[in-house]
Sequence to fold (155 residues):
Amino acid sequence: MTTIAPPRIERADIREALVAYLEALSLAEPVQARLWQESEITLTQLLVLRMLRDGPRTAGKLGSGAGLSPTSLTRLVDRLERRGLVTRRRTDEDRRCVEIRLEPAGETLLGQTTVLRGTDLHQAVEAMTSEERRGLTANLRRLVELARTIRRLEE
Fold:
């Protein structure tokens, strides 16, 4: 179990970082609306489908990778399964273990989903230097990793 002990930071720095995050998050709202209009799918559902593109995963691994609680993941997979985008299958090695698999309809939906292409957000990332994009990617992944770790520790 990892203990997180961040260095002491001035409260103003924390506030500024959180405000910047919220400003960035607001950029996702039009993307989410467009995604729903085009495919009736959420960004989180899209993330799960993309994770399954690499192959079947157990619910535990899928939930952990998407940062979802078991209950939330079950509900999300139920919705995707009703639409024929994923299926659940018991593994041959351990019948208690259930894998979630991407179905051809899910793969098709992924191929048709290009909600970020051409958006202001896409153009802004494109306008960044390679170094800025790498830094942004690393820092966002670190933020997600820390937030998910803290969530797991609190459960």
In short: Residues 1 and 92 are 31 Å apart (CA to CA). The two ends are 13 Å apart (CA to CA). Residues 12-115 form a domain with the Arc Repressor Mutant, subunit A fold (CATH 1.10.10.10). The mean pLDDT is 86.
